[in-house]
Amino acid sequence: MSNPGQARRRDLDVVRALAVVLALGWHFARKPTGVPPLTWAAAPGGSFGWAGVDLFFVLSGFLIGRLVFLETRRTGRFDGWRFSVRRAFKLWPVLYLYLVVQALAGTDRPGDTSGSLWPNAVHLQNYLGTSVPHLWSLAVEEQFYLALAVLLPLAARRRVRPRTVAAVLGAVLVVALALRVWATARGWGAVDVQWQAQFRADSLAAGVLLAWAAVHRTDVFDALRRRRTPLLAVVAGGTAWLAIVSKSSPWGMTAGYTVAWVWAAALLLLVLDARWVDRAGWVSRPLAALGRNSYGIYVWHVLAAQLAIEALGRDYADGGGVNLVVKYAAALVVGVVATQLVERPSLWLRDRLLPGVAQTKAEKPVTERPTMSVFISRVPS
Q1: What is the pLDDT of residues 265-292, one digit of tens each?
Q2: Which residue ranges does UniProt annotate as crossing the membrane (predicted)?
């Protein structure tokens, strides 16, 4: 989640773009269009686009975890309050504007919408329900990071060793899977298992664990990144699983989400500092531009598509190529506008009022391709 004044990593924006394209496909591309090229292009999103959220989770955990561990290593403490306020500047303006517009213009207007929207304002929609179900993932993230903001300062004050922190993160990976197995065996619904934080914290914890390795065990992290063939095999095998096994099946509700974060972590490691990102600029630059606007696109895409289709009329409401193109176009346009007019000014104000820890020291420009040690210190926050 970058600051407007900082140099951005194109490879990270490419990962954001892949995640948001998958997520949009899950919501837009699950019906046949009647136009083979469009159907083929949208097939991954329509098949396993829900895993785009896990890719967001792993990337978010990696970036936030890196900030946390670098601050702790540099200062010997972690300011959870500062961290939480800076995240509020990032998330809330776009989100709250969306909730207001949704209350006024959404399909549930005007009676019960406000009652089903309010949990989103306090990040409890994954437990209390919501009329905008795609926002459940924001609640999982914020609940996870609230726990991080409370527990990590305590760990820093008690001088908990980094290895202990890594062990706790590893335990989260195991416990979340065990809880999913337990809940599935007891007949819990697929939506509850997908949405509730105790079942989904492993994707975020996996990203934070990668960040721990990048900061505290750089040699291990670099060795893992260099294993391109095994990483490609994991991505290929994970893609096959996600495309074949329904997330609502018993296997999908349990091992499926573990496969999703392993797949996402491998994909992230493959794209990080990958040479093709620079060499194939004709592909990576448009993807990076999309990634820079991914948060606004994700928050607004369902409502933007709904209003655009309503404007076209009933003839385009039931699928088809025009329906799909209009939905994607509306989501991109509205998401970019929300990013440029709401998110970026909010980040500018945040960095004037409450600069990040890394922004308090001037950094020398990097004039050559970054090594991993430079990468660790310069990934945007």
Answers
A1: 999 999 999 999 999 999 999 999 999 9
A2: 12-29, 49-69, 166-185, 197-215, 227-245, 251-274
